[in-house]
Specification:
Largest sheet of chain B: 2 strands, antiparallel
Strand content of chain B: under 5%
Oligomer: heterodimer
Shape of chain A: globular
Strand content of chain A: under 5%
Low-confidence stretches of chain A: none
Number of strands of chain B: 2
Distance between the termini of chain A: 40 Å
Number of helices of chain B: 24
Low-confidence stretches of chain B: none
Mean pLDDT of chain B: 89
Radius of gyration of chain B: 32 Å
Largest interface: A-B, 59 and 52 residues
Helix content of chain B: over 70%
Largest sheet of chain A: 2 strands, antiparallel
Chain lengths: ~500, ~625
Amino acid sequence: MSVLSAIIFLPILTAIFLFFVNLHITLVKIVYMISTLVVAYLALNLYIDFDASSSMQFIEQHAWISQYGIEYHVGVDGVSLGIVMMNALLMPLVAIALYKQRDKRGYWINLLFVQGGIMGAVLALDLMLFYLFWELMLLPIFFMIGLFGYGKSNFISMKFNMYTIFGSLMMLISILYMAVEHKEQFGFYSFALDELKNITLTTTESLLVFSGFMIAFGIKIPIFPFHTWLSDTYRSAPMGIVIVMSALMAKLGTYAIWRFLFTLLNETSQELAPYFIWIGLFGLIYFGISAITQTHLKRMFALSSASHLSLIVVGFFIYNSYGLIGSSYFIVAHALSSAALFLMVAMMYERVQTYTIDSLGGIAKFAPLFALFFAFFALSIVGVPFTAGFVAEVLIILGAFEYDTLIGFFAATSLLIPMLFMFKTISKVLYGETNERTKNFQDLRSHELLAVIPLALLILAMGIFPNYFIKKIEPTAKAFVDKKEAVYHE
Amino acid sequence: MRDTLLLGILLLSPLVTASLIFLISLFFKNTKQTIYTLLALAGSGISAAIALYISYHSYFEKQIFSSHLFTWLNIGDFTIEVALKADALSSFMILFVAPVSFLIHIYATGYMSRDKSYGRFFAYFNLFIFFMFLLVLADNPIIMFIGWEGVGLTSYALIGFYFGDIQNTYAGNKAFIVNRVGDFGFLSALMLLFLSIPSGGFGFSNIFLSLAHIEPFTLSLIAFLLFVGAMGKSAQIPLFVWLPDAMAGPTPVSALIHAATMVTAGVYMVARFAPLYNMTPEVSLFIAYIGALSALFAALIATKQYDIKKILAYSTMSQLGFMFMALGVGAYSTALFHMFTHAFFKGLLFMAAGAIIVAFHHKQDIRDLRGIKFPKIFIMMAVASLTITAIPPFSAFFSKDAIMGALYASGHLELFAMAFVSSILTAFYMSRLMVVLFFNKGEQVAKESPKSMFYPMMLLTLLSVFAGLLNVPELFGGDLNFSHWLNLADKIYTIPHAKEWALMAVNTLFIALVIYNTYKKYAYTNAIIVEKNYGWVTNKFYIDEFYNKTVVAAIDKLSHFFEKTVSSFLIDEKINLTALAYLKLGKIVSMTENGNVRFYALYMLLGVVSGFVYLYWMLRSAV
């Protein structure tokens, strides 16, 4: 069994084990920690062994359901490597930061399921396998919101699931359609990414197949106008899941566009690219401006995430190496920043029992460490220099200018828009007079520091020495851009 | 190797000390102030010493110091090196930035000595110098942009330093947001520039070599967008609104960041891109007009202000306008020379203001400070005031007069006229400030300022007086050493000596007259009290209110509209309705399953009939 399979199945098996063996909650947490730390260790080794001069590697391929050509086929390249690393890194950190707050077994079991599901979806190179993992990571979310959520959690959980399952079904239809087409054109079924890209489809067919995939991915990201599940779900979901959704799952949607749509339907994607660039730019501005008047911290950061994700979509659709590397880098950078910021919000909630921005204030006076990290992570979302987000934004903006000057200007508004709500939030949360709620605000405890310091250091390192990290993405980008050139020259 | 060591230490000593101070203040609550003081002064002192060394060698031996630290990014053609280079222009910048920073550091150890957040203050302060050095020493515009944003960020942190009052942090927010509007332009310009030049690196020298390849429209666009960045940082119309509010920060911050160094970054940037601006005369002229308008506008507002720091803030904006006028007509080194003298006298004015504020229990309104007795501060402040009004032989006389001369010689007499009026207004508001403060009946007597505040001011006083000698025009037998050193692509303007004498004489005469009249009006009278303190000028032409009513309110409205109308009503409600419709449809369909056997028999019958019909059609078509 290769390292990739270990990374995928260790969390899932651990989760099943914990589900059937009724351990004490402390032991559950310990097993969770061990499992996630082993995954993190494996992922770190993967990162070190990852050959920075080639694209897809660590490929593992076994026949699975041979009569339909379904295979177990996984592999990692420069773009997916980032998401794998983030998934492996964030899961133990979430537990370190929040282990005191959550004493339900289901919470930790579900998180393990999610981790395995995301790993599988990121690494899968077979469409059926991908679909399986894609669904696998949704179920735990459904349970977690229903069981541990706030507010009208049942309604919201249902709504979220209806939305995503609707999308998934559309995708399933597209996948099956392509497999059948493959059978008709080549005589055998196949779900392999490499083989399905060879089939020829008419314009209408490819548009329909494209839409099927795009609805699933668009809902997951979300792009405008599929976003209305977003802010309620974030508001209601427990923090562990919010972090997973904003830092990892949403990114998976953008990643899947690139991995599957751009591979399977390259020409259609390129033809439709201008529309999605505009949708992305519109989303960037729309979500950003929507966030300004939010009064609930989680809702505001939900919209803030959506705004940046739209920018990532733009980066992928501008179809050049700056855009691709910028977006891949942004996936990682934003995963770090948003996870860290949501962790800070969770810690804050534990202390003040509120998410309402207006009822906070003056925290910096008694909790300088909390204030420092909160402000730092908020600024890293805004993309100030020396943080990873800055590098990513500069690259995407550069790519956008290369694509078209006007689109470049619109992409550059990402310098302005997140700032409008982030600075107001920093002021209202950290500064000003203290009040009843915040006057006894306890500063960060050591286990909380342990969770946020690695994130902060990584954000800084990725902002100051980006070249070291980007080297691993570059061959993938080069292969991608060469492929695009090939399409043009045909 | 030597270069790397020098530049590296120059750059990193403020950063390292800032980090140390940060860590100590976060984790060791009861650290003595002395430790912070030592670290802060060591950080800025070391870099000041190295800066002087570098400028010395640059000035006398024409040496260029350069060092390549590491590769920041390398994607295909896109290579950004973290490289530092102290050519003449950068050496000139650090020549005043580093020592002035050091002096204001010493001053701040006195000014901030009773503050609980002493450590935090110096952590930010040293971090600021680090970014400022990065900005002026960067060898390519991307790294320069990082420094540029960095100084904005530390400025934000320092404006909101007294965060107990949320209005202060709002002032910081405003500063950063307005600056970022400028940065939007700056970054866009850099992207366009990068994509327009053929490969070969993004260092300044390579950029300037490639300018000829860029088509004129793009070039003008780049030049304009770069200047948008400068407008934000250097508080020019229309992005100036943050500067007056920035006075919420501690006074050493106002002296260092919002007078002597950071706000001049825009001037530096335009001068750095001088080869570009020489190719786009229409953008240059635009710069000159913006500068002239800003100078006039700010000077006008300053005449009706009462807060001592706000008067100085508007004065800074006005002086920056003078520099941009000079830049706009291509007199780059003249503009830079004014920036050089301005750093000393404006730093000094703010420090004096700070000394007064500390001595008189944080009163800042000049109407409350009438007739104070503060002899030493008075002398220094008087020197600084005479310098800013350009009275010979103080330093700004040389620098401002050179600007006026260049404006006159450039043939743009309207610019010259605006500059002339601004300079008259400058004389008026400065003497108004001085006369109200010191030439009135009053009982308030100050304690002596601490030595740590006094000596840096002394030094700056001397510099204000004598710095002009470094660039004496030919008229007085000088040979414009500075301009030769900087060696920028200046447009050379020569006007007959007779005319130059006449200009100078008229200018000085007018200024003297204004000072005399102001003295007559305000000295030992209650003119300042009875003065009309309402209307357009006092209220800064309602620009803030205008921005609030238009831009800010519009964004808020749009946000509500997006969230409430579009997202909730137009999209979400429709989707929920669809779900509801399905529910209803389900209910209707479920009525068929009513448990009534007769109905099921009916369904069976229907099924059988339709089966037969289908079969019939099949068979018919088969035949």
